[in-house]
Amino acid sequence: MNLLGIDLGTTNSLITVQHQGKVRCIPNALGSDLTPSVVGLDDDGSILVGATAKQRLVSHPDLTASVFKRDMGTDKVVQLGKRAFRAEELSALVLRSLKADAEAFLGEPVEDVVISVPAYFHESQRRATRDAAILAGLKPVRLVNEPTAASIAYAVGRLEEEGTCLVLDLGGGTFDVTILELFDRTMEVRASAGDSQLGGEDFAKRLADLMLKENGIDPADLSAGDKAVVARMSEAAKIELTDGSTTLVECRIHGRDLAWPVSRDGFEGACGDLWSRLLLPVERALSDARLKPQDIGEVLLVGGATRMPRIHTLTRKLFGKDARTDIDPDRVVAIGAGVQAALVATNDAFGDVVMTDVCPWSLGLDLAEDTGGGSFTTGHFHPLIERNRTIPVSVSENLSALRPGQKLVELEVYQGESRQVANNKKLGTIQVKLPPKSKVKEIVEVRFTYTVDGILEVEARVDGSETLERLVIQQTPGLLGEEEIARRLTEIAHLKTAPRERAEYRDLLARLDAHFAMSLKERRQQIALAMRLLEATLESQDEDRFRPMARRVRAFLTQLDEDRGVFDFPDWAQDFDPDEDGKG
Ligand code: AMP
Q: 493-525: per-residue pLDDT in tens?
């Protein structure tokens, strides 16, 4: 059975497979290898995933969810119709769709996968990603940090070389910086830093705000539909400003027809503080790795948003060299996850490269501090594993009870960088019973172990005792318990996904409809006929009829797109023989 790589992105998701020594992206039902990470409910209550769901963001905002990767590991729910969905369930539906695409492509069941996650993901976000995979019927064999995956994709084929590279990954919703060192066919992460609340969408949002401000529109007056139009137009304009220095945004909002010209300079000016926010993690990663910009051999750009020209100017200014972009920034993480999957599966498909990773956050305890005279203060963070330690790592420390005769030591485990635990993230509590009526301050040995999969295990034992307490995370917000996972697994299995043909049908129908709106007379009638025939083959629920019809409609659409004057569609329709057309 194949072991596949998955990039579960904020904006788009991809699934990859290794074939004949090369990793390739698998196309979805619509023929694209980028599946938008969007989930929606169709009018009949069935689940839509990807481009078909994305098309309905504007028309059915209440029935469509996107950008849910940001909510992984939290308790936030999104109401779609009658049902509330958690981020891991929405992600599970995206993963289930990728699984179906891969199974259709490979002709065999798919189970084992390597999934990429932002280097900056918390413990609970990683757990939520694993839960999503399980809910999708997949086995997450390993999680790999996205920048690590990207550098693996770049390093394949030149593992003999040595050097240091810095990966800048600006996706739809997250920003990661990772410094990696390649030596003796070993790839080691030296440091990673990032901002989990900064991504391409924030830049589009700035453009949207500028558009509303310059046109004197109060955002509070916008309907949900208007908001979706603004979001879509600003996203498109942002991308146009990558290639051109100006663009014109034309749309209808709040009952007004807008024609708003905007320049790249205007856009970049509106994002002033966002550019500075990009620099902070770069500086922190360099300082954690004790490196200077000139020590970096290669800068790799990952994530669609690194296409923004300002990013290239910034990296050139900072590092004095051009960044590498030769692998498509939207696909490089998925390709790297596929390479990693192949390495896990075969151990030597791509040579004996060894990878090490780092712990993205400091992990430690809330430790009481003796302030003298028998008083103590709490709330101070005592790190056991400092951020950017190479993993796997295991650290133990002996802690003393506060006073003789103390019955219980309660250790609160935190993750973060602040001296005040209140500013860090609480992961759980572990309780250690002390021997009764002890005359001395008992010593408790605490061990923190952080694995390559980003799992933290905390063990505590009273000195000289055999009893070992393991951390059981109690009521951690934003995580599902085992029973809850089992319950949701059954529920998700019963959620009806719109058939693959339906997704393709909707896509073709939407494109035909757009041409219908633009055309007149005979051409219009031909388009209407194509729509009816397509509808009829879908209703027949016979895939052998639907496929060839879809292929013909696609050819017809190519003709329409190229605006060729002459159509012979009616004759073509009469000739239609699914058996004949099914070939090839
Ligand atoms: P990802 O999460 O890596 O798929 O990144 C998606 C983000 O990249 C979205 O915010 C897109 O708007 C952005 N993006 C994609 N292509 C471009 C482009 N040509 N110029 C600017 N941003 C882009």
A: 777 777 767 778 888 887 887 777 777 777 888
Residue 139 forms part of a structural domain:
no
Give the closest residue (by CA) to ligand 1 atom 20: 239
CATH number at residue 213: 3.90.640.10
| Tokens representing residue 40 in the block | 């929606």
Backbone angles phi, psi at 180, to 5 degrees: -125, 150
Number of domains in the chain: 2
Residue nearest to atom 19 of ligand 1 (CA): 239
Which residues does 383 contact at the CB level (< 8 Å), separation at least 6? 362, 363, 364
Torsion-angle region of 171 (φ positive above 0: left; ψ -120 to 50: alpha; else: beta): beta
In a domain, 158, yes or no: no
Model confidence pLDDT, tens digit, residues 40-52: 998 888 899 999 8
Beta-bridge mates of residue 183: 186
Residue with more model confidence, 166 or 57: 166
Residue nearest to atom 16 of ligand 1 (CA): 304
392 cis-preceded (ω within 30 degrees of 0): yes
Quick check: helix, strand or coil at residue 363?
Answer: strand
Q: Ligand 1 centre and the CA of 53: distance in Å?
A: 19
Catalytic residue of the set 33, 146, 195, 235: 146
CA distances from 144 to 108, 135, 159, 345 (A): 24, 19, 19, 14
Distance CA 403, CA 381 (A): 20
Between residues 228 and 267, which one has the greater pLDDT?
267
pLDDT at 179 over 70: yes
* Residue 404 counted as domain residue: no
- Best mutation site among 32, 68, 308, 314 for ligand 1 pocket (most ligand atoms within 8 Å of CB): 308
Residue ending a domain, choose from 237, 272, 307:
272
Side-chain-side CA neighbours of residue 59 (13 Å): 10
Distance from the alpha carbon of residue 138 to the mean position of ligand 1, in angstroms: 28
Residue ending a domain, choose from 238, 272, 306: 272
- With bands split at pLDDT 50, 70 and 90, how would you rate the model's confidence at 584? very low
pTM greater than the 0.70 cutoff: yes
Q: For 301-316, write each residue's pLDDT tens digit.
A: 999 999 999 999 999 9
170, 199 Cβ separation under 8 angstroms: yes
Q: Would 551 be classed as within a structural domain? A: yes
Atom of ligand 1 nearest to the CA of 174: 2
Residues forming a β-bridge with 254: none
Structural domain for 205, as ranges: 200-272
